[in-house]
């Protein structure tokens, strides 16, 4: 099972952010995802609330938080995520990290997320 760590820059206004959100949501729809961790430095906005609505079947944890979701445990801060069994991940503008629970690995190059591809 896969889960994700993102920062809230994805929910800022702009054409680029809109495209990234669209690609990420398409990817989420095609894959079984049970958890999204969000490092949040900004206040919630309409784009974030819309994202929550579209991901209503996925557990979403927003920083700051100590969490345990189906055995995935850790601490989520505004600037980083410390998840048991994985290296600490720092949030940068546009951060999106995919974690593979089965393989126990993480991947930060998600440029291949395009709607319509496998």
Describe this protein's structure.
This protein is of the alpha+beta class and 118 residues long. It contains two helices and nine strands, in the order βαβαβββββββ. The strands form two sheets. Strands 3-2-1-8-9 form a five-stranded mixed β-sheet, with no helix packed on it. The radius of gyration is 13 Å and the shape is globular.
Describe the secondary-structure layout.
Layout: E1 2-7, H1 15-30, E2 33-39, H2 46-54, E3 59-62, E4 65-69, E5 72-76, E6 80-83, E7 89-90, E8 96-100, E9 105-107
Please supply descriptive tags for the structure shown above:
118 residues, alpha+beta, four-stranded antiparallel β-sheet, 2 helices, 9 strands, globular
Distance between the termini: 16 Å
Q: Tell me the Rg in angstroms.
A: 13 Å
**Poorly predicted spans:** none
Mean pLDDT: 85
Total beta strand runs: 9
Q: Strands of the biggest beta sheet: in what spatial order?
A: 3-2-1-8-9
Largest sheet: 5 strands, mixed
* β-strand amount: 25-35%
